[in-house]
Design goal:
alpha+beta; 8-stranded mixed sheet; 3-stranded antiparallel sheet; about 30% helix; globular; binds fe (ii) ion
Length: about 300
């Protein structure tokens, strides 16, 4: 089961490198690193402005997303060009700040990651009416339909910027235990290895050309099905062990959300930055979901 690991901890004769490896190991075991007070600066002025940005519930996008690699903002229900530019500038600054902070805290990963999207989540999570697979209040592990990770890991950094309300999560078993319980025997089918022949060649070419819809590895296919399976499974949702966590205003927490099964029960106004962490930089690679699944399947999945 996932545990909360409070930081910063008192360091006695521990080098920054050792501390970084220790933090990475706690994350890779399926725990949440927790800072009661956000360990990086956010402009209070700009946060206040952001809190005034109400997204229409009918808006197509769940969140406002920022793509650091192309410096694009999407999903913003625009009021004025000036407001959009201000949100864009804030998200750019936020993303850069979190990248700098994460580079220092988790030094073994630095430079060996792909910086993925950042997001601002302005909707109240409790009671949202959305389709089953998009629901955050059902326990699941993350898998991105449009951005296959090819076995690399999904690390997310969250900050609750709500001035008064906690963000409430539940977590259950970590991925290794869920896989042991649900693969085979009426649950999920065994993962199958890379296909041979033209399909394999096509997959390689698509990967090189970054055509994501065609470049999905067997691992990505299986993880996306597992995400859907967990959300749709009454057996899992109704019988699994759960732990409730309340992340107070101004707190920050980090987790590998492909490992930590999680549900968001309530809360409004969170910021989040995602990283895709290279398998080659993990300190406990045998714990990675792709290695867990490869042991079960008996073949390579990427
Ligand atoms: Fe999630």
């Amino acid at each position: 089961m996932t545990q909360l690991v409070p930081l910063p901890r008192a360091l006695h004769d521990v080098s920054p490198e050792e501390h970084g490896r220790w933090c990475c190991a706690r994350l890779e075991e399926g725990n949440i690193l927790f800072f009661e007070k956000t360990p990086f600066e956010l402009s209070p002025h700009e946060v206040l402005f952001l809190l005034g940005q109400k997204q229409s519930e009918a808006a197509y996008h769940k969140n406002i997303a920022y793509r650091p690699l192309s410096d694009r903002l999407t999903g913003y229900a625009q009021r004025s060009a000036a407001d959009k530019e201000r949100v864009h500038a804030f998200m750019r600054q936020y993303s850069q700040t979190v990248i700098g902070f994460t580079r220092q805290l988790l030094s073994p990963y630095a430079g060996l990651w792909t910086v993925d999207f950042a997001s601002f989540r302005p909707q109240q999570e409790a009671g949202r009416q959305i389709r089953l697979r998009a629901r955050n209040d059902l326990l699941h592990v993350d898998s991105f339909p449009t951005r296959p990770s090819n076995g690399n890991r999904i690390l997310r950094v969250f900050t609750n910027i709500n001035p008064s309300e906690p963000r409430v999560w539940e977590t259950s078993e970590t991925f290794d235990n869920l896989a042991a319980r649900f693969v085979g025997a009426g649950g999920m089918p065994l993962p199958r290895g890379m296909p041979w022949g033209p399909k394999r060649v096509l997959n390689k070419l698509a990967r090189a050309a970054r055509i994501h819809s065609l470049a999905r590895s067997p691992y990505d296919e299986w993880m996306l099905r597992f995400h859907h399976f967990l959300k749709a499974s009454p057996e899992f949702q109704e019988t699994c062990a759960r732990t409730r966590w309340e992340f107070p205003p101004q707190s920050t927490w980090l987790a590998f959300t492909d490992m930590v099964s999680h549900a968001v029960l309530s809360g409004q106004f969170a910021l989040e930055q995602t990283f895709i962490i290279s398998m080659s930089s993990l300190v406990l690679p045998e714990k990675a979901p792709v290695r867990v699944l490869e042991r079960i399947a008996g073949c390579a999945l990427t």
